């Protein structure tokens, strides 16, 4: 029995996934068939669980149990500070899961000691497939690192292109503004749509796009509405935040309507972060 099928059966038995979430065994076989891809998104809270205890072993185990081919991570520290033991979380998780990694920092600060690595915080993509290219895009942000911030372009919207069974897939990972005022999120959504539209430029072949992230807003939020013009929300069927007794769905898998189909999606129950991860089985159209 394959690891993927074992993982699914364990989650089904635990009541975390529906039986329809079984992997699409033959979906990618034969010419012209859709190609399966399992993706996940997880805000890892800088390695800390719902108990605020830093435990990367716990998070690595949870990520491994999802058996995803591509994972978008938010709130990722790289030598940031004592809260994550000055470690490079994206690189460590990639090594433990035997995956490739692309890290897109939102903040990159000078080290506290000469010669030490830069202190960075941002988002990351882990992938079982080869990362063909990577880019760290700027979107509108309201900095948490300066007094009296004003909205301004800043990095931290990561994009990678991975090749899945010969098909290029654009994967984006993002973390939208957390404040109650939706204005910055609205600007970030506009930036996101502009960047993703550039990859769908006229004359290009079919472009497969997957957006993963913590949007810090409910699916019905007005500031998210423009996203649903081009993207399909995977709709995993449950809230994701806070991890213990969640009441809001603010973590998303979204895919381009004309080139990717959502076969199934679910929220995995875990307290390894203050968010719950979302995992989705997709079919990539040829």
UniProtKB/TrEMBL annotation:
Residues 40-275 form the Endonuclease/exonuclease/phosphatase domain. It holds the Pfam family Exo_endo_phos. Gene3D superfamilies: Endonuclease/exonuclease/phosphatase. Residues 1-27 form the signal peptide. GO terms for molecular function: endonuclease activity. The keyword Signal applies. This is Endonuclease/exonuclease/phosphatase family protein. It comes from Streptomyces pulveraceus.
